[in-house]
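Field notebook, page 203. I keep forgetting to write these up properly, so this time I am using the form the group agreed on. The chain and the ligand, S-adenosylmethionine, are recorded exactly as supplied. Prediction of the bound pose follows.
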Amino acid sequence: MPNKNSELVREGYNKIAEKYNKQRKIYQSKPLLLKFLKYIPKNAKVLDLGCGTGISVAKFLRKKSCKITGIDFSEGMLKLARKNVPKAKFIKMDITKMRFTENSFGAAVSFYAIIHIPRKFHKNIYKNLHRILKKDGILLANASGTCTWEETAKDYLGAPMFWSFFSPEKTLKIIKDACFVILWSKVLKIGNEKQFWVLAKNK
Ligand SMILES: C[S@@+](CC[C@H](N)C(=O)[O-])C[C@H]1O[C@@H](n2cnc3c(N)ncnc32)[C@H](O)[C@@H]1O
């Protein structure tokens, strides 16, 4: 049975896909992606969790020669991603049910997606990522906001929306417990939003 908050997120992004796509560039991702690229080999196989419309993350990494697989559960967002980044692979998949084999990817990114997933699932997402990523694989994600938080908003770009995450401290513990070494972590203000970013290496 689908989680009702996740269904609200999926339906929300289906509705606002075009609008989200148009405004995505206000959240500058390039400095973070350049930092990520320093840690991964050229042509690395990168999994983009909650890839959205492929702007800016998948598009930028593809241009830098990464082999991108983007997953998302919103058909509306995936349709735009396939148009925006024709040379990447996009699959409809729920992040809480990732079904890739062990050691499938050299690296993973997740921008503004895990924060939409009910936090009771977060531990298993990182455990699954530990399994999916190769040893020493790099993960870059905004893993939470500035404190433990859960909210359902009536109107985010024209649709109801849901967010859920733990504090940065608890989030770091979850990621470490899933067998990652933390390379860097920081709360950053990008656009109007303060998010907690983590760069980690798989053990
Ligand atoms: C704010 S958008 C971010 C999209 C993209 N990463 C970016 O940087 O613009 C969040 C995305 O996460 C996706 N998402 C949220 N929960 C998900 C889940 N459980 N499984 C798959 N995708 C999910 C949404 O459909 C949406 O496309």
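OBSERVATIONS:
- The pocket of S-adenosylmethionine is lined by residues 6, 9-10, 13, 24, 50-52, 57, 72-74, 77, 94-96, 111-113, 116-117 (CB under 6 Å).
- The domain at 4-202 is CATH 3.40.50.150 (Rossmann fold).
FOLLOW-UP: compare against the apo run.
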